[in-house]
Amino acid sequence: ETIQVKELAEKMNISPNEVITKLISLGIMAGLNQDIDFDTASIIAAEFDYELVMPLSSSEEIEEKLIAELDYEDSPEDLVLRPPVVTVMGHVDHGKTSLLDAIRETSVTKKEAGGITQHIGASTVNVKNKEIVFLDTPGHEAFTSMRARGAQITDIAILVVAGDDGVMPQTVEALNHAKAADVPIIVAVNKMDKPEVNPDRVKQELTEHGLMPEEWGGDTIFVHVSALKKQGIDELLEMIALVSEMQELKANPNRNAVGTIIEAKLDKSRGPVATVLVQKGTLSIGDAVVSGSSYGRIRAMLDDKGKRVKKVGPSTPVEILGLSEVPNAGERLYMVDDDKKARDIAEKVRIKNRDEHLKATQKVSLDDLFERIQQGEVKDLNLIIKADVKGTTEAIKQSLVKLSTEEVKVNPIHIGVGAITESDIMLASASNAIVIGFNVRPTTSAIEVAKREQVDVRNYRVIYNAIEDIKAAIEGMLDPEY
Ligand code: GDP
């Protein structure tokens, strides 16, 4: 955003000469009709005791418009099949990392073997001449924090459950994250080489969480694997290919590229380095791109094998060099016509980010729930319920679901035992949910993240109080909390 010197002076009711003199004192030579940028104008305004307020709605509108322009819908006839993007989730130590390693090793062709795989945050695996993209960061934290930023990049979730250990708290957490994102789940019962495994118990336990195996009449695919002995990996890959075929995942390769940043860092010698998953279009060396307030021209691209590539199509992860600053993981990346446009958009995003806190109220909270129900903005009141003992969770869930009205459905998306964690908050943020705790406290990091993500966290000692609060909020009778 810019403003003319003349216009700025008029707005403050100060002679243009005074404004020009001030500008000179700042080392800026500007004439009456010259445009100065928002930052400079703010400084000048402050000198005269004025505060320059960027019309937020307009900057947001501009960004929305630009994005609609860059991320337009493709017509169905331009779409072609693209590889699926898969995330591996599950309880700690159940074998997520081992499984990813096993998958990568099994699929490495003889020609590639010996070549070092680069860690770029995602890797492409070849299965019978079909590709599958795996996100390297196992676990739902990465997955959900991306979703909280509005980026849904996963098409299929692999839920790893150790056959000897069975379903554990993070297994349930992971499957709820995947369900909340509406991502199909394939269960990999791991460690099948161990004598004490009991895959039927895993099936039984998961059935209780809504994942019914196919052989029991449900529609969830279970595959028995051993990441350690590399058994069952081919079958798992085939199942992924099958599920992805059913989804008919498509994208248009012939358009400006749109992708999502998976990882980014500042490299001492190479500058800002980012891995982007291209989702639509084709990205080529020399293309001008923008991602949040970072922009630039693509100087070089490396694939997951560390090989330099010139251009890549949909569902391809590549490391890119040439950005002006390190972008945020989860941020979208757009290809634009030229550098200037990239810089302009980045600048607008920067201005918008500065005023980001003003948008905080967009997340649902008990305090503004009624109003937002009235305005038709909230139809599902998503809840995450954490309690100290398992017995209470079910009781709480039942009582809260009963509070549903015609206007709003009370919808518990995750219920668990133990402290409120960062992961609960990220799930809440991604799903626009409120977190309710009973006799449990949020962890220190959860408190911080809740603040940042503007998630409403409520702690109760008595179930009755929670029911009263939520009922009152739905009916618009809640006393505001100070
Ligand atoms: P993550 O925390 O889910 O990523 O789990 P890891 O991949 O780090 O595995 C945790 C432990 O389980 C490691 O000691 C692995 O060697 C072991 N492990 C993983 N897969 C298997 C398996 O298929 N069989 C056996 N016996 N051990 C396994």
Automatic annotation (TrEMBL):
Region listing for G-domain, in residue ranges: 84-232
Identification of the protein by name: Translation initiation factor IF-2
Primary site of residence: cytoplasm
Start and end residues of each Tr-type G domain: 81-250
Keywords: Cytoplasm, GTP-binding, Initiation factor, Nucleotide-binding, Protein biosynthesis
Subcellular location: Cytoplasm
One MF annotation (Gene Ontology) recorded for this entry: translation initiation factor activity
Binding residues for GTP: 90-97, 136-140, 190-193
One GO CC term on file: cytosol
Role summary: One of the essential components for the initiation of protein synthesis. Protects formylmethionyl-tRNA from spontaneous hydrolysis and promotes its binding to the 30S ribosomal subunits. Also involved in the hydrolysis of GTP during the formation of the 70S ribosomal complex.
Claim: Cytoplasm is one of the keywords in the record: yes
Family assignment from sequence similarity: Belongs to the TRAFAC class translation factor GTPase superfamily. Classic translation factor GTPase family. IF-2 subfamily.
Residue numbers of the full-length protein present here: 119 to 600 of 697
